[in-house]
Amino acid sequence: MFFTDHRIEAVSQLGLFIREFVQGESISNGHEDLAEELRAAITRSFRHNGWFVEDNTMQALEAWGNELTKDNLEAWREREGGTAEVARTRVGIVMAGNLPLVGMHDFLSVFLSGHFALIKMSSDDQYLLPVLVKVLLRFDELFEGDWIFVEQLSDMGAVIATGSDNTSRYFEYYFGKYPNIIRKNRTSVAVLTGNETEEELRGLGVDIFSYFGMGCRNVSHVLVPEGYDIQNIFANIVDYSDVVNNNKYGNNYDYYRALFLLNQDDFLENGFIIVRENDELHTPVSILHYSTYPEAGPQARLEAWGESIQCVVGQNYLPLGTAQKPCLWDYADGVNTLEFLKNL
User: How far apart are CA 307 and CA 304, in angstroms?
Assistant: First the structure.
């Protein structure tokens, strides 16, 4: 059954657990042991994957805790047409590992849809989700028959796979015969007008540096009007200078700075990010591209990039600083996961 009250209540209890954990409150419903297990998983995740520093994992948990309320879940159900009968299908989920819990939306979509999930986790993010799903089992032990973690997908009726442009070709080859959602590389863009306040430009810093810039909702390219002084950005992102102290981020920064110096490329840098005037949308970690748009506006540039853009922030778009705060119904790649699952 699609989006039953019982499943919504279970997921809302998961949201409560996460909120209490993040806020450091006493954990209700006797889940103190799971809180300890989650703390251990956060530590283990960082030891395994140096990008998953505790602050980033807690940011991801906070975002999920804020979204997984009963009101939000019911609003999500209403947007998708309410409860419906569905033919239960085994849905394979191939999760990415660029951000902590980046595959959780796909898992929750399958769970709330009443389907069975075969979860192929990324080796980069393998410790957090198995703890969180135990909260659902505490709510109803029968949910144990609703998912399984696997090393390899087999015997499924549909697939949701997230990866890069390269892995998408692999996914198409192996999973093309199934109903599928196959996601590729995307990134996000900021459009500035030159009228931004200092607070808005500090928000741009959040959009650039959250999770070290590794998410599809992180801004990697800034569109500015002709004659814009790019130093305006530098002046308002100094609060994020600590990112370079992360070994992985710092190594990227040092490598590309040395490479551009060797090649005598033009660039600007401030000790923790390299900014280049370049038309390319995608950038490596520690690099921000910018380009100018004509008086007619940036729309032609945005349309040219098309499906390579995940979201756009700016005064006429999503507010600066909110790129990493999607609603439950802000679907990756603009593909409605629940509609796909409802129609299996």
Answer: 9
Distances (CA, A) of 141 to 31, 117, 146: 15, 16, 10
Instruction: Give buried/exposed letters for 307-339 (b at 16+ CB in 10 A, else e).
Output: ebbbbbbbeebbebbebbbbebeebbeeeebbe
Spell out the per-residue pLDDT of the chain, length 344, in tens: 678 999 999 999 999 999 999 998 888 888 999 999 999 999 999 999 999 999 999 999 999 999 999 999 999 999 998 888 888 999 999 999 999 999 999 999 999 999 999 999 999 999 999 999 999 999 999 999 999 999 999 999 999 999 887 888 888 888 999 999 999 889 999 999 999 999 999 999 999 999 999 999 999 999 999 999 999 999 899 999 999 999 999 999 999 999 999 999 999 999 999 999 999 999 999 999 999 999 999 999 999 999 899 999 999 999 999 999 999 999 998 899 999 999 98
DSSP state of 321: T
CB 117 within 8 A of CB 148: yes
**Helices of type H across 68-189:** 70-79, 104-113, 129-139, 165-175
CA dist list (Å): 149 to 95, 126, 209, 231, 257: 11, 10, 31, 48, 41
Ranges of each domain in the chain: 5-184, 187-314
Instruction: Give the whole-angstrom CA distance, residue 191 versus residue 60.
Output: 25
Class of the CATH domain delimited by 187-314:
alpha beta
Q: What share of the chain is helix, strand, coil (3-state, %, to 5)?
A: 45, 15, 35
Tokens of 180: 């599928």
Q: How many other C-beta atoms can be found within 10 angstroms of the C-beta atom of residue 90?
A: 18
DSSP state of 285: T
Pick the CATH number of 5-184 from 3.30.450.20, 3.20.20.80, 3.40.50.300, 3.40.605.10: 3.40.605.10
